[in-house]
Amino acid sequence: MQPLEHLAKEHRLISKAVAVTKTFRDEIDAGGPIRPRRYWQLVDFWSTYADIVHHGKEEQWLFPIIVEHGVTSEFEATIDKLVEEHMYLLAYIAELRRFARPMFTGDRPARERVIMCLDNYIQLIQPHIKLEDEELFPAANDLLSKSELDELAKEFKAMDTRTGTKVQSFYSDLVTKLMEK
Question: Which of 8, 25, 155, 172 falls between 20 and 30 A from 55, CA-CA?
Answer without folding.
Answer: 25
